[in-house]
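Pilot study result, target chain (626 residues):
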Amino acid sequence: MSTRRSLLVAALTLMGAGAALSPARAAPAEAAVAVATATPAPGASTPGPAQPPKVLRYAFLVAETGFDPAQLSDLYSRIVTAHIFESLYNYDYLARPFKLKPNTAAAMPEVSEDFRTWTIRLKPGIYFADDPAFKGRRRELVAEDYVYALKRFYDPAVKSPLYSSFRQEGILGLQGLRDDALKRKRPFDYDKPIEGVRALDRYTLQFKLEEARPRFLYNLASGDTYGAVAREVVEHYGDRIMAHPVGTGPFLLDKWRRSSLIRLVRNPGYREVRYEAQPNADDAEGQALLARFQGRRLPMVDAVEISIIEEGQPRWLSFLNREFDLMFGLPEEYAELVVPHGHLAPNLEKQGLRLVRSLASDRTMYYFNMEDPIVGGYTPEKVALRRAIGLATDIPTEIASTRKHQAIPAQSVVSPMAWGYDEQFKSENGDFDLPRAKALLDTYGYVDKDGDGWRDLPDGKPLVLEIASTPDSRSKPYDELWKRDMDKLGIRIRIRTAQWPENLKAARAGQLMIWQLGFNNTTPDAQIGLELMYGPASGGQNLGRFKLERYDEIYRRMLVMPDGPEREAQLREAQKLLTAYMPQKFRVHRILNDLSQPWLIGFRRPYFNQIFWPYVDIDTTRQPAR
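Predicted structure:
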């Protein structure tokens, strides 16, 4: 039995016996929110002891990059910002797969028949969290805050990785502001009014678009990206804004030790929001949660503390040792012991642990840098190399061995729960065919020319693939899979390791040859995934810099089409082009296993947004002493 497996079995045994382990611990928890106590009136009975604060504790497996929505694209930073900044609309917490409802907006938007004009009225009386930037005044949310927040994505000085995403929406006038700043080499003019996004009055916001955008509403429901931002805060903190997020949401940042601990506390100025949701009629669990919490004021916890623990073993053992309330993503290496055959192990179930298991609306993939001299390009021999690498990628073994059956093969760019996903769809992307891969390389001249046992480029130069990775135990099995698969194909590889934020920075600069990562859908539409191969998004969301005129034409056509058979036909053609040119190899859709302690109540992993902290409660009477 391996050392890791032995440690886990010992931990499970000790937990069943009621003993506690002492692994390397997360950063010590600190007091959350002070509980006010009043002096009893004369003759009144003395109140009981104050209830301990409710603190949700869990861990991220990847370090955050910061907390300015305009500068982020990574999942874990956006989980934090989603609870600080607020979008106009939000997803119902219990509805499945999704239902949109007003958040800071007073009602659903008024939309013109051509889907080009969107008018939204805000709820009055919403306020930003108190901050020195406001110089002692209470700052109300107004329509102009959303205008300013959107303009920041276009400001060249901000260097927003999501600029390309907003650009595709064709908001009238915004690109002109950006072009003018670049041309004149002047600061971006935030004060210049434009037709595309305007505050008609204090509480009324209007968007005007160049073309129809039937799904523009999804952008308005992304609090982790397009949340309200106060201009005074950005100007007050300047280049320190990543560490000073100030929003109107239920939480505010209390403490941040980079790559170590993120602590947020309840926003004392948060407006009165009650637990309201619309679970499906046949959703017994959702109906039970609604019956339990309906009408409760949100958020129900006082603070959230997030540790950064990249290694799976200490993260899991810390959860077993009751240091964490939530296991947000069970490390795959423990799946066979913890969720055998997709069910929670009996000994853990007896301890009251709860399993939340879901097929994620995501995909893992690796992309090829299409500007790289070895793997990039559009000529037949370059396409053949990428397709051969894709065919030689042993996805069945990855799912069975490394992922412990916690995934299904991906056939294309479209993720489960997204519009256009068809579980019956099949493509070459889902094939593992080593003989065919070898034949492709032989046909196009990738053979061993110098007799050293490794394939060379058609011109005789060495063929070496450089794979970006991270220096942690979670990445090691995938690095080993890469080597084993490419060894069988006869191609040498070199693993280039760096921390995830550094890899992301290098990827945006076009400095990585091949990098494997995951993509989580933030809307219920396939279009957001297609953007990752859209030519004008190169250097932003399109990390691989794929540029194909026909594909870009389909992408733009799909933007203006309503959902239906014609749009679906366009999507199928896009899928065929991506399979043929292979700018990305889509690997799997993950099955996520989240576990909660008996005292954590109400957790559900959202499909398309990151918001769940306000909807969970902690029964402190069942919680062990910290």
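One observation from the pilot: The longest helix spans residues 565-581. A full batch analysis is planned for the follow-on phase.
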